[in-house]
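FORM 7B: Structural annotation worksheet

SECTION A. Query
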Amino acid sequence: AAFNLRDVDLVETDLSHLQGGESFALTVELSGVERSLQLMPVSVRSPGYQVLLARGDRYVEIDAPSTRTYRGHVAGMNNSSVAASVVNGQITAMIHLDNQELWHLEPASEQIKNAPQTLHIAYESSDVIKGDWTDLALEVPDAGFYYCRLRSFWRTNRPRSCEPRGPCDSL
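SECTION B. Predicted structure
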């Protein structure tokens, strides 16, 4: 089923310095409130996991890359939880706050053509609208306005279109 979002927050974050496998803290603004995500690496690989490289008619085991999956919490919120992955300096996460709000954080580049790698989209699950598409306009810093049909990163579908446009009179 197609769905859309009522509201999104644009979040700037640069994780390009992460090598993988290390704990880190990330501050994000969700609905105007700064939240500090405390994240620790957690492997989801099965016991005996191997990376094999094909060399002619045989396979050679090579070192597995560092884990890219993380678990953690929001600082100051005892009943919060965060599940995340970091790939190529971009984070995708589900954030459960103490008050039962569920937030999603995903790279804007998955939804907006030519978006900077540091730009991410944050939205609450309650902002997901099921049903027919209604379009959304976003102003991307240093890139102008984009007119988009967004889909959650939990779906395999991608936007039908997301093209640069002029300033919008209304959303």
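SECTION C. Observations
Confidence is low (pLDDT under 50) at residues 149-171. The first strand starts at residue 3 and ends at 5.

SECTION D. Sign-off
Analyst initials: ____
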